[in-house]
Specification:
This protein has 561 residues and is of the alpha+beta class. It is built from 23 helices and 15 strands. A hairpin with a 2-residue loop joins strand 7 (331-332) and strand 8. Helix 3 runs antiparallel to helix 4 (80-100), helix 4 (80-100) packs across helix 6 and helix 21 (508-516) packs antiparallel against helix 22. Residues 192-418 form the Tyr recombinase domain. This is Tyr recombinase domain-containing protein. GO terms for molecular function: DNA binding.
Length: 561
């Protein structure tokens, strides 16, 4: 019966034009298996072996340069992903050499001048320059590369020459760290800038993860390979754990533990309320360190345990990071869930359920952006984690790495600024009497006093009182009116006086006189003895000793929302 339908089979992706998008990428493996079965029946040829991490041969460079790059690639102990990325960048250097310096074909020919020329070239690079295949760069071709990319180019170059010199493959003609250092103009544009997902979008994604159902999942062939329970716990793990996609894919059976008051308890214990139990998640050896344990929301722990109860028995699988054979939590039909599955399937499904786009102003919503979002929320909480606590929760070796994930929000910064009381610390408030009769009658316009600053022992009628250098310890110039004088008593007896408050900014010496007591006040008076008053005379010329009574300060309670 199969023979009658063979002519209906579409061509395999390898036989199609590379620009034909009718067959989705995630169906490639299925068509590959079908063609192998049909080939076994003798109706077609075997399909070409699919690409599984094999790097294409380096083209466009001198043969000698390509051989050096391949030799380094096969010797370096960096991770496979980093080595492959460096190999791609080093091949671009070879094409640049072939274009700009064809006489240089080997690393042994590099000098400090060559390094300087390459650093300058990197600063001017654009997307699509010196690439082997330009198809994947069509949308952004011609645009300047980002400062982060420029730094990556120079990092790969430094690593290449440093290794060659350390392994004594080439002589030391220059120091790669200095000759290929990142220029200040580029380094100044680098720094912590976590791509946090906006709070409103993140809240919708959380709701989608908590309410996702079988109908919300894609109906592609690859997705039918996994049961709904597995996809649900994958969604919750991404939303609540703050893990890298590689760490999620490598979680092991039994990774959840429970404790109460520091003592282990079973997950289904009836003796402890769910809100009082602490859920601990064991994280395997990861990108920057060894295995560690972190607290997570009990909701995630319950979901993982529910999946463990339903999970069919699976063979032990190789953990490529540690070389151990372990029971992977996310495995089905003797196959592990790929670390790219969260980005390719889970996140688009949650975005569709939540009614939000898969991209925002900071780019695509990815698994790693959830890590930055959770870290920033923990850092800006009402009772926030410290940087070192967050470092331990994320599993970083250095707090410097944690700074690339935790971002202080403007609200948190504004609250901290207000709590610091910088403005209030340098400003004091005093009472001022406003003679409304002098204002309404026009006497104030003709020069009569109408503002009386209450100094405690008298009044100051100087209009620009807050600018007077003697405001904290009055020198009793002609603008001064004692309270016990007849003029002062008549003023206080007036009916049409309006009491108001005025803010007076203080210098450091004046603030010290207020806060530190008599010694600081005496020091202030000594400094002001020859400083002119608003009338032009100095306290020494006036001959009246300045009062030791400080300016009376009115306490003002400012409400904080």
């Amino acid at each position: 019966m199969l023979d009658r339908h063979l002519h209906h089979l579409p061509p395999t992706p390898a036989q199609q034009d590379t620009h034909n998008t009718k067959i989705e990428t995630n169906l490639t493996e299925s068509y590959y298996g079908i063609q192998r079965a049909v080939a076994a029946l003798g109706h077609c040829s075997l399909p070409p072996t699919p690409y599984r991490g094999r790097m294409p041969a380096i083209e466009g460079t001198a043969q000698s340069w390509a051989e050096w790059v391949e030799r380094w690639h096969s010797t370096s102990t960096l991770s496979r992903k980093v080595r492959d990325n460096h190999r791609s960048l080093l091949s671009k250097i070879g094409r640049w050499l072939a274009d700009e310096h064809p006489e240089i074909t080997e690393p042994t020919q590099w000098t400090r001048q060559t390094c300087a020329a390459w650093v300058a070239a990197v600063d001017k690079l654009r997307v699509g320059d010196y690439v082997q295949r330009a198809a994947s760069h069509e949308k952004r071709a011609g645009q300047p590369i980002t400062p982060h990319s420029k730094s990556g180019y120079l990092t790969a170059t430094r690593a290449f020459f440093r290794d060659l010199q350390e392994w004594e493959w080439i002589p030391r003609r220059f120091d790669p760290v200095r000759a290929l250092s990142t220029p200040r103009t580029i380094a100044a544009m680098l720094g912590p800038d976590p791509r946090v997902i906006a709070d409103d979008i993140w809240a919708k994604l959380l709701w989608a993860g908590l309410n996702i159902g079988p109908d919300d999942l894609p109906t592609r062939l690859n997705s039918l390979r996994y049961p709904f329970e597995l996809l649900r716990v994958l969604s919750l793990t991404w939303l609540f754990s703050g893990l890298r996609s590689d760490e999620i894919a490598r979680l092991r059976v039994g990774c959840v533990r429970w404790q109460h008051d520091g003592f282990p308890i079973p997950g289904d214990s009836d003796e402890v309320l769910a809100r009082d139990a602490v859920c601990l998640l064991d994280i395997p050896t990861h990108k920057t360190g060894t295995s560690f344990t972190k607290p997570v929301d009990p909701l995630l722990g319950k979901a993982i345990e529910a999946w463990q109860d339903l999970r069919p028995q699976q063979p032990k699988m190789l953990d490529r990071k540690t070389g151990e054979h372990v029971d992977l939590l996310f495995a089905m039909r003797a196959r592990r869930v790929a670390k790219t599955y969260v980005n390719k399937t889970i996140i688009p499904s949650l975005c569709q359920k939540a009614g939000v786009p898969t991209t925002d102003v900071r780019g695509n919503i990815t698994s790693h952006r959830a890590r930055s979002t959770i870290a920033s929320q923990l850092y800006n909480a009402k009772e926030p984690m410290t940087l070192f606590e967050l470092q331990a929760w994320l599993g970083h070796r250095s707090p410097e790495s944690t700074q690339h994930y935790a971002k202080i929000t403007p609200n948190t910064l504004a609250r901290a600024y207000n709590d610091a009381g910088y403005f209030e610390r340098n400003v004091r408030t005093i009472e001022v009497l406003v003679d409304r009769d002098a204002v309404t009658s026009g006497a104030a316009a003709s020069g009569e006093p109408w503002q009386y600053y209450d100094l405690g022992h008298g009044f100051c009628t100087y209009t620009f009182f807050e600018q007077c250098p003697h405001r904290m310890a009055c020198a009793r110039c002609d603008f001064y009116t004692p309270k016990d004088s007849s003029k002062g008593q008549l003023l206080e007896a007036k009916d049409n006086l309006q009491r108001m408050l005025a803010s007076v900014p203080l210098s450091d010496e004046e603030r010290a006189a207020v806060d530190d007591g008599q010694a600081a006040l005496d020091q202030l008076l000594e400094r002001l003895v020859d400083v002119p008053t608003p009338t032009g005379t100095t306290p020494r010329e006036i001959g009246v000793p300045a009062t030791a009574t400080l300016l009376p300060i009115v306490a003002v309670n400012q409400g904080k929302g």
